[in-house]
Each structure stands twice: as C-alpha cells, then as structure tokens.
Amino acid sequence: MNEDPMAQITAMEAEIDTRVAHLYQLAEEEYSLILKELKLPDPFAEAALNFYRDIAGGILK
C-alpha cells in the first residue's frame, strides 16, 4: 500500500511530456530520439514511450 511517491511523479511527468509530444505531432521515432538525447533515466523513458503508444493506439485519450 505504500507506493513510492517518486514513482507516481515520474509516471505523471512521463504522461504530460508524452501528451505534449502528441500535440506537436511527433512520430514515435522522433520522440524516442528526443528521450535518448536527453539521457533520461530508463524508467522515465520507458514510461513515456508506453504512454506514447497508448495514446497513439487510442487506449488513452
């Protein structure tokens, strides 16, 4: 029951960043390159790409 608050913040940040990427109509490859160039921690980059795919696939709106 004691979830890590930083994990929640990371997930929220990843979702917000991904929504911005979609607003700018970035392709997944472009967004992935940006994440790699920023040298973000793996959990953040993975969460961001998962959100990207969920939005692109219509799972999240």
Describe the secondary structure blueprint for this structure.
Elements: H1 5-23, H2 28-37, H3 42-56
Helix pairs in contact: 1-3, 2-3
Q: Your description of this structure?
A:
There is one protein chain. The protein is mainly alpha-helical. It has one domain (5-56). It is built from 3 helices and no strands. The protein has helices at 5-23, 28-37, 42-56. α1 packs across α3 (42-56) and α2 packs antiparallel against α3 (42-56). The mean pLDDT is 86.
Brief characterization of the structure:
By secondary structure, the chain is mostly helical.
Name the shape in a single word.
globular
Number of helices: 3
Secondary-structure element order, as H and E?
Answer: HHH
Rg over CA atoms: 12 Å
Residue-averaged pLDDT, rounded? Answer: 86
Beta percentage is under 5%
Described by strand count, sense and barrel closure, the largest sheet is: none
Give a count of the beta strands, DSSP E runs of length 2 or more: 0
Helix content: over 70%
User: How many domain units?
Assistant: 1
The assigned structural class equals mainly alpha
